[in-house]
Input
Amino acid sequence: MERQEIKTLLQDPPIGSQVTVMGWVRAWRGNRFMVLNDGSGPETLQVVVDGNRIDEATLRGIGFHACVSATGVLTESQGSGQSVEVIADSVTIFGENELSRYPLQPKKQSMEFLRDNAQFRMRTNTFSSVFRVRHGLAYAVNKYFHDRGYYNLHTPIITGNDAEGAGEMFRVSTLDPLNPPKTEDGQIDYRQDFFGKATNLTVSGQLQAEIGALALGKVYTFGPTFRAENSNTSRHLAEFWMIEPEIAFADLENDMELAEDFVKYLINYCLEHYAGDLEYLDARIQEAEKNMKATDRRPMGLIDTLKFVVGNDFARVTYTEALDILMRSKAYKKGKFEFPLEWGTDLQAEHERYLVEKHFQRPVIVRDYPKDIKAFYMRQNDDGKTVAAMDVLFPYIGEVIGGSQREEREDKLRQRMHEMNIHAEELDWYLQLRTFGGCPHAGFGLGFERIVQFITGMGNIRDVIPFPRAPRLAQF
Ligand code: 4AD
Ligand code: MG
Output
């Protein structure tokens, strides 16, 4: 089969030549104007279908989301709204679409409804734009690191470790769930399981990435991660993709610099290469906000927000300073926060959003968190209370990046693991990275869906991954 892609055709339209386009009908007007989109970009192409040239049966087959091929001469358009159009000599219907039985309809449909009908949601303007941008970001991630001499490391999806020590793991087992073998004291005997030990889906590739960094210098992972946390929110998925750079000879300052430079690069890449999709998504938000109270609307449009983020330095504060700002805020004094604030408690989304959207009005990097709310591998600061951790907080989303300088001192790491009840035998290989030829190193994890969510302006994280996994949600 031969066809021209609409995106390419419109870049430099070969007026006067014969072209063949194939795609799905977005609109069918006056039994004469067929608006086609083929997924190559957000652009549509109008095809003029003349009833005198095209037979009755074919005409009847044209309709919303039917799949067609059209051949004809590309001409300058007489009508307004498009610069060129195809005057069809022939039209072939690949797939008719019986509208009375088709789940989607040519009208506004709710995000929830479209999620339930994910077999078709990518045919809508919104979702096709979101998934093109998602692709662009995945490419930009690899380009950014490749161009700077990082090596991509494929870390395992099945592992015996709990990298975050939070116990939020999905068990991987081939044992008979109804009749598992038992040990003498009545526990499930995972020694008889497929891997001869208890295994789970990975929550992070970081610990293995550290192995890579301490040999290759600079590495990054980009893979699926799984968390069995029962968080039914618009920012949590049970299966999400994470990018984890890990660098040798680096401290927390280097880590923060990399994080800021990296996310700005990703945003710039989209502004440059996916302008059409972003314009569509921007307009979509402004349309949705028309019926909202002024206080609920975004202070800036989507593209302006993105430009603002890349054009300004991120604010940087310590956890202690952040807490101080929060506790002195009007919102806190008026009891506007739901969750309590006290030195040592974790910042909740409402606190993060206050810092970013109200106080600093730009992205914020919070560093030096209390050690008791952070993972065992983070480097202990000299104050004995905090660790060299940092979170990057964004408007609307909150945390997009979490990272740290790693504890490279074996004795300190052992002591912390002991305090946190993490068995040294299980992470012997991790400890050995300190015993033998270790060095200061640091890294972070960027939640891929969170940055896609920020850049596309989508309200729910489930709408930026093709097939979301969340509590009670594993369709497709
Ligand atoms: O802060 P987290 O838990 O950090 C780690 O996993 C470290 N091992 C990273 C590292 O230092 N190499 O997760 C990192 C990021 C978060 O900032 C967030 O953006 C995202 O992963 N994330 C989630 N995204 C979607 N759904 C969830 N349930 C997520 N949990 C974390
Ligand atoms: Mg985190």
About this structure: Residues 125-147 form the longest helix (23 residues). The chain has a mean pLDDT of 96.
